[in-house]
Amino acid sequence: MGHFTAFLSLLLCISFEVSASSWQPGILSPRRPTFQRSLPCTFNGTTGFSQLKYLNSSCADIILSNLTVPAGVTLDLRRLQPNTTVTFDGQTSWGFQEWAGPLLSISGINITITGAPGSVLNGSGELWWDGKGQSGKKKPKFFQAHALINSSISDIHILNSPVHVFSISDCHNLTLTNVTIDNSGGDGPGLGGNTDGFDISASTNITIIGAKVHNQDDCVAINSGANITFRDGVCIGGHGLSVGSIGGRGDNTVANVLFEDSVIADSQNGVRIKTKHGQNGTVTRITYKNIRLQNITKYGIDIDQSYGATGQPPTTGVPITDLTLVNVTGTVGGTGTKVFVNCGEGSCSAWNWTEVAVTGGKNSTKCLHLPVGVWC
Ligand SMILES: *[C@@H]1O[C@H](CO)[C@@H](O)[C@H](O)[C@H]1NC(C)=O
Ligand SMILES: *[C@@H]1O[C@H](CO)[C@@H](O)[C@H](O)[C@H]1NC(C)=O
Ligand SMILES: *[C@@H]1O[C@H](CO)[C@@H](O)[C@H](O)[C@H]1NC(C)=O
Ligand SMILES: *[C@@H]1O[C@H](CO)[C@@H](O)[C@H](O)[C@H]1NC(C)=O
Ligand SMILES: *[C@@H]1O[C@H](CO)[C@@H](O)[C@H](O)[C@H]1NC(C)=O
Ligand SMILES: *[C@@H]1O[C@H](CO)[C@@H](O)[C@H](O)[C@H]1NC(C)=O
Ligand SMILES: *[C@@H]1O[C@H](CO)[C@@H](O)[C@H](O)[C@H]1NC(C)=O
Ligand SMILES: *[C@@H]1O[C@H](CO)[C@@H](O)[C@H](O)[C@H]1NC(C)=O
Ligand SMILES: *[C@@H]1O[C@H](CO)[C@@H](O)[C@H](O)[C@H]1NC(C)=O
Ligand SMILES: *[C@@H]1O[C@H](CO)[C@@H](O)[C@H](O)[C@H]1NC(C)=O
Ligand SMILES: *[C@@H]1O[C@H](CO)[C@@H](O)[C@H](O)[C@H]1NC(C)=O
Ligand SMILES: *[C@@H]1O[C@H](CO)[C@@H](O)[C@H](O)[C@H]1NC(C)=O
After folding, report:
1. How does pLDDT run across 271-330, given as a tens digit for each residue?
2. Which ligand has an atom closest to residue 257 CA?
3. Active site includes 277?
4. Domain ranges of the chain
5. 2-43 pLDDT, tens per residue?
6. Average pLDDT over the chain, rounded to an integer
7. Residue identifier of the C-alpha nearest atom 5 of ligand 5
8. 151: CA distance to ligand 7 center in Å?
9. Residue 264's pLDDT band (boundaries 50, 70, 90)?
10. Ligand 5 atom 3: the closest Cα is on which residue?
11. Where is the catalytic site (predicted)?
């Protein structure tokens, strides 16, 4: 009996593999695959995409193998069963269409998301890039992780995102390890824009370790949330490690953030906190530790309480308190500025900067309301 069931499951599994590979164009509805909980559920090619609708609770181990996602639709992995593993294998690709995306959406509890060695999620951003970022051609955002709880994302390699890459929102206890975002092909005029690496909001206990990001906007942008760590990262080409912009959203509190042991190179800014002009919120207990700056073109360190209204006097509605910079060193390029601190009166306090040494570029003459112990 036991042997017979095992044999039958094996047959069923084989019948799925056969149905997947023997699918021919023109057959409207691919055969419903049969899943066995002890075996991985593999989806490949375009057939694999259309069979994803048959995913069920037997699929604890999902393999997406060279998956081709049609234009204008999301690879929708929301509401996965708890304890599911998703592995991207080979190249995952998406068709071209002007739409808002996302290309991929994942949510669930205790989910493990990983990329097999050599795997790539290819957004083919070059088909959208027009130098206008979030305006111009309508571009799909890439990777939506909303309500992804107690989960991990590792060894994911993203290539050429049309616009923003990771949107992390309403996530708790999420670890992202060894994620690569390679949008280097979008460097230069008329190409990639607003290709933020990790946008984080309304989330707690988020840890990003070993990320490599080459893009054209913030490497990380934390709009709200608490207990967020970014460590052992490399950010190239973008706008730096940012807290903000804060204000004017549903959640306007950022607390307990640590950026540590990371390099920011060939970027507009290095360390950056931006709070919106005329808005309310709080930014507290932010630490940048062991941060190396290299060839920063605008501001090595940029703390701005007039964000969105450059030139207007800074406002005090989003106080920045307990900001620690320790061992933040490196260089700013010729036309850049070492440090810019633009605070409202009394709205920046309890800052502790030690071993901060930025060389090259100019000194700002426009800093306002510097807290005690901070130079500009
Ligand atoms: C899907 O799998 C079948 C059988 O393993 C293989 O022949 C086919 O090339 C695969 N398709 C893609 C797009 O990888
Ligand atoms: C998630 O995993 C933890 C143990 O790691 C377990 O206690 C919890 O019940 C799991 N949650 C669900 C919804 O399965
Ligand atoms: C998920 O796995 C954890 C153990 O790691 C277990 O406690 C929990 O019950 C599992 N959840 C489900 C829904 O099976
Ligand atoms: C994906 O497709 C490539 C090229 O067709 C092939 O070499 C590779 O084996 C496939 N990978 C998987 C995981 O199916
Ligand atoms: C996050 O993890 C902590 C510690 O493991 C646990 O106490 C907490 O309940 C988890 N949060 C959620 C939303 O599951
Ligand atoms: C991340 O990469 C580092 C260095 O290559 C490696 O030691 C570590 O095991 C990797 N971690 C994961 C979860 O893949
Ligand atoms: C964050 O982690 C801490 C420590 O493990 C835990 O006490 C807290 O409940 C977690 N927060 C959430 C929202 O899960
Ligand atoms: C942040 O982490 C600390 C220490 O682990 C914990 O006490 C606190 O509850 C966490 N905050 C939230 C909002 O989960
Ligand atoms: C400095 O960074 C810019 C991009 O921000 C790049 O164009 C330039 O080549 C870099 N300069 C050096 C000397 O690496
Ligand atoms: C900010 O808070 C102040 C004081 O509570 C309030 O008067 C003002 O309307 C708020 N501004 C915004 C944009 O919400
Ligand atoms: C300071 O940061 C650099 C990386 O920028 C690191 O190599 C060095 O060990 C750090 N120094 C201390 C004292 O931790
Ligand atoms: C400032 O930060 C340094 C390095 O983390 C620490 O040693 C020192 O105690 C802090 N000073 C204050 C006044 O908190």
Report:
1. 999 999 999 999 999 999 999 999 999 999 999 999 999 889 999 999 999 999 999 999
2. 8
3. no
4. 41-362
5. 343 333 333 333 333 333 333 334 344 567 888 888 889 999
6. 92
7. 173
8. 13
9. very high
10. 173
11. 239
* pLDDT tens digit sequence for 224-258: 999 999 999 999 999 999 999 999 999 999 999 99
The CATH classification of domain 41-362, taken from the options 3.10.580.10, 2.160.20.10, 3.30.390.10, 3.40.50.11260: 2.160.20.10
Q: In angstroms, what is the span from residue 204 Cα to ligand 8's centroid?
A: 8
Atom of ligand 5 nearest to the CA of 109: 14
3-state secondary structure the chain: CHHHHHHHHHHHHHHHHHHHHCCCCCCCCCCCCCCCCCCCEEEEHHHHHHHHHHCCCCCCEEEEECCEECCCCCEEECCCCCCCEEEEECEEEECCCCCCCCCEEEEEECCEEEECCCCEEECCHHHCCCCCCCCCCCCCCCEEEEEEEEEEEECCEEECCCCCCEEEECCEEEEEECCEEECHHHCCCCCCCCCCCEEEECEEEEEEECCEEECCCCCEEECCEEEEEEECCEEECCCCEEEEEECCCCCCEEEEEEEEEEEEECCCEEEEEEEECCCCCEEEEEEEEEEEEEEECCEEEEEEEEECCCCCCCCCCCCEEEEEEEEEEEEECCCCEEEEEECCCCCEECCEEEEEEEECCECCCCCECCCCCCCC
Report the nearest-CA residue for atom 13 of ligand 2.
82
